[in-house]
């Protein structure tokens, strides 16, 4: 049996599917062309069909199941009520400036995904990716958090693949009470704390990307002195970024066995930007202990005239060779610009002359 349709032609690609928070028998179908259908799975027909003249990218329900929000290709968000589906009851273009003549705001980049999460004692959270205005093409990929009238734009280091809002309740028909957003980037995974007004990120317990700058050489130390890993870690902690969330990493589950071997191992990676990273490789996962920037030693070249331009390479600070004596803790680095730097380990940063 084929269900009757009230459209003569197929509306095109489906971009969204979800059931109503109040009724699992009602399926919300969003089509790319701007059509949205609330389909009754029991009677196999459309309860309502609405249309908006901008392409849809995603849809998010209000927990009561009476309203939903669509994100569109012109950087707009539309709010719809099931009781009056002829037109949206609210249209917002979060990053669009309203034109002086009062006409429609300038169009922005598409809002690729929106999540609409409610709170019992405050305004709902509207969280979306994309949607920035076209007049700032150099801006990085971003996640926008709207809470009441406050709009916060979080710029990311890599393009956003997807994001998910973590809520206090697993049930879609209750007040959501969001507390964090997990953002999957092309080369990273970050978690944003929504419970603090400045939205700090959680400190990530796992290293996500060893190759944030290309690895140009590596060194491996097996069975190194047992105090070396704690010492490197204690120095590395001092250089960590400040301003992380003070809460525990909110993702749990999964387990790994500790490595079979009992001796400590360290892997050292030298990178194209002149940085050197020390990793604890004793367990299954690599844990970064300390990062050293050799490029700090050099003055950045001012490119004037032909002579300096000839010297400039793609990666002038790239690390090419490393040697570390774990007993004396003297570390030697040779780089692409034909230099050698000798470091002696110290708990406090000092510059010393080495004869």
UniProtKB/TrEMBL annotation:
Name of the molecule in the record: Syntaxin-binding protein 5-like
